[in-house]
TrEMBL record:
Protein name, as recorded: FAD:protein FMN transferase
UniProt record similarity statement: Belongs to the ApbE family.
Enzyme Commission code: 2.7.1.180
Top enzyme category: transferase
Reactions accelerated catalytically: L-threonyl-[protein] + FAD = FMN-L-threonyl-[protein] + AMP + H(+)
Binding site for Mg(2+): 192, 307, 311
Keyword set, alphabetical order: FAD, Flavoprotein, Magnesium, Metal-binding, Transferase
One Gene Ontology term of the molecular function aspect: transferase activity
Domain of life: Bacteria
Record's keyword annotation contains Magnesium: yes
Record-linked PANTHER family: FAD:PROTEIN FMN TRANSFERASE, THIAMINE BIOSYNTHESIS LIPOPROTEIN APBE
Length: 364
């Protein structure tokens, strides 16, 4: 969990991943749940890769190690499916679904994982003064951006949904292992940390199996470069140009045992009266943020933290967001891309970014 020194604190954005030593791009394809084992040449390391469709996105996993087997991929699939079921707002029988059905009525007993995710979400909300809010579900449902929503809702409906958004009304009983929403109509939404949480669980599982070199890519927006490449080199991450088609990069960054997580305004949106309305909703206004930012990329040791930060810090805007990130004691870095193609970065990530598109330049 991160702490601010002042306060004691289907894809949001695409990131291109250059796979270890083979120069391939890990993008979505028509293949689903199909694994590929690479037979190593003399002196090379065995690898196994597999793609899944879950969390309404494509998940690519590539594991390196002489001990890797299909059982590892089967175990990862089970983790993903369990998390998707527990955290889904729409899958009947899932724990978050049941919490929402019981809103304003009764507490719901939950698993250790759901309890942990809800606790983390509420802590993030406190540390970011409610800009990250796991009860934003009524606004998400109202706007429905990316799932058919294509117009601005009436102000009265926005006000009604906004009034139901307040993380302080999540009642957690750790001893009883229950979660309750205080008011009828509230909707818990763990989408702000769901992919990051799952990515962390996969990384933890692999480490326990003695597999310490892997690329974990959940939808291009939550990526872990576990350990190093088998040859000891860092993972090379290509960063998506927010103004171009998928696969067009503006630059690269190398990571090892780190997470890259991005949020942006260009994947899910609609246009009305010349205004772009995207999926990153501000709980203060009930509207998509209009703060001059195209995207925010977070680099962190922890995917769950990075997932939450990429939303909450985006809503802070560039100036306050930079100050917030720089005040964090943990090894957290980030960079913003503004509407005028300027990149504003924290010092630790700025020196590692390699820009390849001349239309972008550093603003700080």
């Amino acid at each position: 969990m991160f702490k601010n020194k002042k306060a004691a604190l289907l894809l949001a954005a695409l990131v291109i991943v250059i796979a270890a030593g083979v120069g391939t791009w890990l993008f979505a394809s028509s293949k689903d749940k199909e694994s590929a084992e690479t037979t190593p040449a003399a002196g090379e390391t065995k690898s196994l890769s597999q793609q899944f469709y879950i969390y309404d996105t494509v998940v690519n996993i590539k594991i390196f190690g002489d001990k890797v087997s299909q059982q590892n991929m089967d175990d990862i699939q089970a983790i993903l499916e369990r998390m998707d079921m527990e955290f889904s707002r729409t899958r009947k029988g899932g724990e978050v679904y049941r919490i929402n059905e019981a809103a304003g009525k009764s507490a719901v007993k939950v698993s250790d994982e759901t309890m942990d995710a809800v606790k983390k979400s509420v802590e993030y909300a406190k540390e970011m003064d409610g800009l990250f809010d796991p009860t934003i579900g009524p606004l998400v449902d109202l706007w429905n951006i990316g799932n058919g929503g294509d117009h601005v809702p009436p102000q009265a409906e926005i006000d009604k949904a906004k009034a139901l958004t307040n993380y302080k009304d999540v009642i957690i009983d750790e001893q009883a292992k229950t979660v309750k929403l205080a008011r009828t109509g509230m909707v818990l939404d763990l989408g702000g940390i769901g992919k990051g949480y799952a990515a962390d669980m996969i990384a933890e599982y692999l480490k326990k199996q003695g597999l310490n070199s892997a690329m974990i890519n959940l939808g291009g927006s939550s990526i872990i470069g576990l350990g190093h490449k088998p040859n000891g080199a860092q993972w090379n991450i290509g960063l998506q140009d927010p103004d171009q088609s998928r696969g067009t990069q503006l630059g690269t960054i190398q990571i090892n045992d780190e997470v890259i997580d991005a949020s942006g305004v260009y994947e899910r949106f609609f246009m009305q009266d010349g205004v772009r309305y995207h999926h990153i909703l501000d709980p203060r206004t009930g509207f998509p943020a209009q703060n001059g930012l195209k995207s925010l990329t977070i680099m962190s040791p922890n995917a769950t933290d990075a997932d939450a930060l990429s939303t909450g810090v985006f809503l802070m805007g560039m100036d306050d967001g930079l100050k917030f990130l720089e005040a964090l004691p943990e090894k957290v870095e980030g960079f913003f891309i503004t509407d005028d193609n300027k990149i504003y970065a924290t010092p630790g990530i700025k020196k590692r970014l390699v820009l390849t598109d001349p239309t972008y330049s550093f603003g700080n």
